[in-house]
Amino acid sequence: MSSFRTGLLAALASLLLSGGFASAQITADSIASHISADTGRPKIAYATYSENLAVTLGGLSAEALERVLGTNTPVVAPPVSLNNNLGLDPINFANMSSNLTDSAKAELDKVFDYLSKNPDATIMIAGHTAEKFNGNMELSEARANSAKLYLVELGVDAGRIETEGFGNTQPLEGASSKSENMRIEISLTN
Length: 190
Hints:
It is a single chain. It contains 7 helices and 6 strands; from the N terminus they run αβαααβαβαβαββ. With 190 residues, it is α/β, with parallel strands linked by helices. It has 2 domains: 3-76, no CATH class; 82-188, CATH 3.30.1330.60. Strand 4 (123-127), helix 7 (136-154) and strand 5 (161-165) form a beta-alpha-beta unit. The protein is globular.
């Protein structure tokens, strides 16, 4: 077994045995923080692993959590990103615009196909801007609503789609240009 994997397992076991999750919710961030503290490696090194573990644990019943973790502390799983799961290309916008490009529509067509095959699925479309300015929250909301309107026009029930604008409050880590933050992200809500 690799030392990396051994370290992860040892840190998780230590955390569980110490009751590290006894009184709070278990989140991907708390898992990564505890493993990082035990291994001395940066928390970011455990981000993907922790998100996957939180999603897996979040699907367990309280009884199963008690068996697996020794506690039935609730697990808060991160939202499932359709951008990632469907392999979508970035859905970006021109500066100061909420108009969908042809490439954005092509990516939303993939979301429509997914929603057509999964009639109980509901989604959240989050709109973003690259910079803070007067009206950035409204523009980010307009971007999310443009995508919603397009999906509704294709035949998705509007009640299955929530929208929210975040302005520039959630920039992409490692974005190489500001245009990468002029975007929408889509996640499952159920």
